[in-house]
Write a structure and sequence with these properties.
Strand order of the largest sheet: 3-2-1-4-5
Helix content: 25-40%
Strand content: 15-25%
Structural class: alpha/beta
Order of helices and strands: EHEHEHEHHEH
Shape: globular
Largest sheet: 5 strands, parallel
Distance between the termini: 52 Å
Amino acid sequence: MSRQPAHERRIVVGTDGTAHGEEAVRWAIAEARTLGARVEVILVRPKDVLLPGTSFALQPHGRLPIQDGYPLAQEVARIHDELATDLAVEASVRTGDPASELLAAAEGADLLVLGSPSDGRIGRLVFGSVAAACIRHAPCTTVLVTPQAAHHFNPTAS
């Protein structure tokens, strides 16, 4: 009788270089420690799309620009060290449609984790453009880490 290898648990985290994205990374690493999973942190830079004559020339659909040169690997390493864990955590930067890239990465994953900026109108606009699409179409369980949940999970969180 042949034994198949045990399923390796995998958590995919989408971040955008903001505080709420970092809280999602922190939550995912802590959860991975409990599950014995590996973590893939993904930052997706949207392709620049020019929409002539609009104020959203480089940020269509109300997307917030991701800071150029955002040190994803260093930020992930900092959070990893803060949580004092020896879990495998990978970080990668991709270019494309954020929702599509995150959904593709979530294929075969156990969890897709995303941060939510706030309960305000602007937060809902940004949430609506990426996280809502991921929640509607995710091939796995999706966790949305809100600021309130992050604070409850970690009272020292911002």
